Predict the structure.
Amino acid sequence: MTLLFSLRDYADRDFDAIVELDRECFEPGIAYPPPEMRRLLSLVTREGVIAESAETIAGFCLGYRAPRGTGRIITLDVRADHRRSGVGRSLLEETIRRLREAGAGETVLEVDLRNASAIAFYERLGFHRRRTIPGYYGPDRPGIEMSRESAGP
């Protein structure tokens, strides 16, 4: 499937749409509540990238530069009708590029151990499993921490 989309910076006017998209992509308790999303978006070193298609937000990626030269991906959300079209890969690569330019030598993210397709996606993009985090997504729901050098595969 080929869809046309463009990438741009997050803008305050996008807030309600990305909170809604996060709720579509993640279940309650995993999706970020609006106050937490607002807090994350206010981080000084944050990078927010929007994918837009026909004036609709097709997806977004949110990351930030943490201490010691680490970039962290907070969330990568893609509308169901835009998945497998290159939106997710483009968003993630652009966010990592921006974090690298801000001084991040590596990028780290977490993913649900049960989400085999997301794990495979990240591995295709050069991420490696670092460790399992018991209870990261709730009781009996471990997460996997994955990382890659910011330069990529």
